[in-house]
Amino acid sequence: MNTSNRGAALVTGASSGIGYATAEALQAAGYRVFGTSRRAAATGPEGVTMLICDVADDTSVTRAVDDVLAKAGHIDLLVNNAGVGLFGGAEESSLAQAQALFNVNVFGVIRMTNAVLPIMRRQGKGRIINLSSAHGFIPAPYFALYAGTKHAVEGYSQSLDHELRSLGIRVTVVEPTYTRTAFEEHLVKADRLLDAYGTARASMTAVVREAIKKGDTPEIVAETILKAATDPEPKLRYPAGKLARKVSMLRRFVPESGFDKSLRKMLQLPV
């Protein structure tokens, strides 16, 4: 275990899955870690201070950041991990459901970031890591709205990084693929299902379930987050795991038509 003091880290959504593994990895690497959960968590990672924070609520975000600042005096790393998934055809979600998704996955990131930036600017240093996804740079049939949030996070993060570099602050995105977490169990279903999409949606459900079973462990993603947090020359994006790196490379170098066919074949959709 590295006992060096790397500073104070704030990890949202740290009560389970990737957030829990990330909080553990950062604590072991020498950070003083504060984790958040939307509701009071019975237990958190050993050595991690757990706080209540709903990233969709301005007051809750302000209270959590103020609490960390009161306890630690500074915030050196923010990991925006909290988020929700939404499964179904794009047409199958009401506008209200789409707005609720963006309020957590996109505006939650913006709320947390805006809350810590004044602190980091005063310090003259800081690092922000936003959890994106391979769905942040490739199409995601039946996850269209979820993919839309991740594409938004990518554009926001990479643009923000250019704004903040001269202030000593860096912003990066980490891009996992399927991860062995409770993601499927907590997946929100579209709120107005249509028969037209029923067969393909059922097929995609089976594909996603199998992919999660074979996916990376949360610890692999946490290792990537730790690398992004400590890299002396941080990159804009860090694919997490072998599949994410492979997909990222294919997306860059394979012609669009070829990538399109390969994606549909992998997802068992008619080519």
UniProtKB/TrEMBL annotation:
<keyword id="KW-0560">Oxidoreductase</keyword>
<dbReference type="InterPro" id="IPR036291">
    <property type="entry name" value="NAD(P)-bd_dom_sf"/>
</dbReference>
<dbReference type="InterPro" id="IPR002347">
    <property type="entry name" value="SDR_fam"/>
</dbReference>
<feature type="domain" description="Ketoreductase">
    <location>
        <begin position="7"/>
        <end position="178"/>
    </location>
</feature>
<dbReference type="GO" id="GO:0016491">
    <property type="term" value="F:oxidoreductase activity"/>
</dbReference>
<dbReference type="InterPro" id="IPR057326">
    <property type="entry name" value="KR_dom"/>
</dbReference>
<comment type="similarity">
    <text>Belongs to the short-chain dehydrogenases/reductases (SDR) family.</text>
</comment>
<protein>
    <submittedName>
        <fullName>Oxidoreductase</fullName>
    </submittedName>
</protein>
<dbReference type="Pfam" id="PF00106">
    <property type="entry name" value="adh_short"/>
</dbReference>
<dbReference type="InterPro" id="IPR051911">
    <property type="entry name" value="SDR_oxidoreductase"/>
</dbReference>
